[in-house]
């Protein structure tokens, strides 16, 4: 809107104001009017971007958290809670429209969201391998450190997801093969676990990876990425 030297601009809520330079007005500071002293002669144009809070729950991790706690997988549940928290606030800060809400720096939220998502896959597959507790804890710690390093090198690299997933699946496959040989019976032993748990989980996880690798683009990012989170949490 045009602005003349005598104009005052009222701003409510928390808004960013751009008029050749950047101003910030916070409603909590009891500032309700913004005055630009002695602007140069001519038409000035001010754009406002609302920074009000929006309700952006990514709550698909609630069922995995509940199942993990019920099964006494408390460490895994804490990883899911971490992922749910930072994924929610990262996407609240990464909105394409007018309304965004950032509880901390965008880069920190993005890093924690990516790390939580990868760690959720890592701890789930390692837990499925049914290893000795000390070995499982070592792998969890190594996974956290190596994934943090990988995300610093290339946060959007496809192998950040495929590498840890394939490595964890390899560990699980070896553990299951050894257990099958020792017991002389296919592991897991019941067909219900294969039909109602492993097969659906594998199909859902494979679909999520396929969307991430081959379908997601800048144009459909906000839709495909949301579906990705739901599929990963569901798997």
What do you see in this structure?
This is Transmembrane protein 8B. By secondary structure, the protein is mainly alpha-helical. It has one domain (53-234). It is built from seven helices and five strands; from the N terminus they run E-E-E-E-E-H-H-H-H-H-H-H. The strands form two sheets. A three-stranded antiparallel beta sheet has the order 3-2-5, with no helix packed on it. Strands 1-4 form a two-stranded antiparallel sheet. Strand 2 and strand 3 (22-25) form a beta hairpin. Helix 1 (62-70) packs antiparallel against helix 2 and helix 3 (106-128) runs antiparallel to helix 4 (133-153). The N and C termini lie far apart (50 Å). The model is unreliable at 1-22, 24-32 and 50-57 (pLDDT under 50).
What strand order characterises the main sheet?
3-2-5
Intertermini distance:
50 Å
Low-confidence stretches: 1-22, 24-32, 50-57
Q: Summarize the main sheet.
A: 3 strands, antiparallel
Number of strands: 5
What is the average per-residue confidence, as pLDDT, rounded to a whole number? Answer: 79
Helix content: 55-70%
Query: How much of the sequence is in beta strands?
Result: 5-15%
Shape: elongated
Provide the structure class: mainly alpha
CA radius of gyration is 24 Å
Q: Give the total of domains.
A: 1
Number of helices: 7
What is the helix/strand order?
A: EEEEEHHHHHHH
Organism: Scyliorhinus torazame
InterPro entries: NGX6/PGAP6/MYMK
Membrane topology: Multi-pass membrane protein
Family: Belongs to the TMEM8 family.
């Amino acid at each position: 809107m045009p602005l003349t030297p005598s104009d005052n601009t009222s701003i409510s809520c928390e808004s960013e104001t751009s008029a050749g330079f950047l101003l910030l007005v916070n409603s909590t500071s009891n500032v309700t009017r913004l005055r630009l002293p002695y602007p140069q002669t001519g038409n000035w144009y001010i754009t406002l971007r609302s920074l009000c809070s929006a309700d952006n729950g990514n709550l698909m991790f609630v069922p995995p958290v509940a199942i993990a706690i019920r099964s006494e997988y408390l460490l895994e549940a804490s990883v899911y809670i971490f992922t749910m928290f930072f994924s929610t606030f990262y996407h609240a800060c990464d909105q394409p429209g007018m309304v965004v809400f950032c509880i901390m720096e965008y880069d920190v939220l993005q890093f924690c969201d990516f790390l939580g998502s990868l760690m959720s896959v890592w701890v789930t597959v390692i837990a499925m391998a049914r290893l000795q507790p000390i070995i499982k804890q070592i792998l969890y710690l190594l996974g956290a450190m190596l994934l943090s390093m990988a995300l610093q090198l290339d946060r959007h690299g496809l192998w950040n997801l495929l590498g840890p997933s394939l490595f964890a699946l390899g560990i699980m496959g070896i553990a299951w093969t050894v257990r099958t040989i020792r017991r002389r019976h296919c592991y897991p032993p019941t067909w219900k676990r294969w039909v109602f748990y492993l097969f659906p989980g594998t199909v859902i996880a494979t679909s999520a990876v396929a969307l991430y690798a081959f379908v997601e683009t800048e144009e459909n990012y906000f839709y495909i990425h949301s579906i990705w989170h739901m599929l990963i949490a569901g798997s």
